Amino acid sequence: MLAVTVSPKFQVVIPQAVREQLQIEAGQKLQVVAFDRRIELLPIEPARQLRGFLGGIETDVAREDDRS
Questions:
Q1: Contact criterion met (CB below 8 Å) for 52 and 67
Q2: Is 47 inside a domain boundary?
Q3: pTM score > 0.70 for this model?
Q4: 60: pLDDT strictly greater than 70
Q5: What pLDDT digit, counting tens, does each position of 36-56 carry?
Q6: Does any domain span residue 9?
Q7: Is residue 46 part of a domain?
Q8: Number of domains composing the chain
């Protein structure tokens, strides 16, 4: 298990192995989420980069009568 130390300025360094695995780059924005007693860092993806990520999804679904 990797561990980090919180600095006096409340900063932490993301270990190199994690940065490489998640392809996190210097200057990249991360969303910080507090969940129970965890802190999660989620990469913020530009909307343009998400284009097409639902390709191949099934679109023939039954809809309610009031939806067109």
A1: no
A2: yes
A3: no
A4: yes
A5: 999 999 988 777 877 887 888
A6: no
A7: yes
A8: 1
The string over 29-60, giving b where at least 16 C-beta atoms fall within 10 Å of a residue's C-beta and e elsewhere, is eeeeeeeeeeeeeeeeeeeeeeeeeeeeeeee
Burial class of residue 67 in the structure, from the number of CB atoms within 10 Å of its CB (0-12 exposed, 13-18 middle, 19+ buried): exposed
Is 41 inside any structural domain?
Answer: yes
Average pLDDT over residues 21-50: 90
Structure tokens at 47: 């909307």
Report the alpha-carbon distance of residue 45 to residue 66 in Å, rounded: 34
Distances (CA, A) of 18 to 14, 27, 41, 47, 66: 7, 16, 12, 24, 47
Domain limits for position 48 = 25-55
Q: What is the CA radius of gyration of the chain?
A: 19
3-class state of residue 22 by DSSP: helix
First to last CA, the chain: 51
